[in-house]
């Protein structure tokens, strides 16, 4: 069986599970609970297919190990925030309040379940390109793998800084000025964890493209759709999240004015919101 067919079967089962459980439990964060798991499964399916076929699977095994590290880190961070305890993403609750029941159910099945399930397949498909072109591992592969690992470390640091802030905020009784983290990596980007998350999948795309180039193809191929759509999704989600933050915290507008939204950059002229 073509490994892509197996990936699509698994993706279909996962999507059906998310939709049915969202109806049964009346909460829609099931896709969030699978977000860090199914791409790991998909990439290992391609790696296993190469290993079984007896072709050079070095690149695919490296890709699978990198995505496994990504998934383990993200699963841990999601779990410690209570993501597996039945807590729904607060943004879905806000959107539910802005829609009628039938409108939200359409949004649930077409965007939350189907679009995001398809996206999780798409970001994994550079491994399909690598499976189709089992050429030897190159220096470019090593460079992009190291870049992926560096972005993974960056996201780990950013999430830890955000976690430490919210723990301190909880310990202080729920109030800690200015209400959101502005130190560490957050002094250079309002969402450094989002930036590093997207960057990892661009590096992953580059690993697949390297296989194609080594086999006489182009750096640009159709699997770029995964990283591109992920970036679009993150930008839209970030804008929505920031509209909520700006309505809650008076200092957030100044933070937006002085600090880059995603790409870590030096702070623009102005002072950072004061912390307690």
UniProtKB/TrEMBL annotation:
This is DUF1295 domain-containing protein. InterPro entries: UstE-like (IPR010721). The chain crosses the membrane at residues 6-25, 34-54, 60-79, 106-131, 137-158, 194-213, 219-240. Keywords: Membrane, Transmembrane, Transmembrane helix. Gene3D superfamilies: 1.20.120.1630.
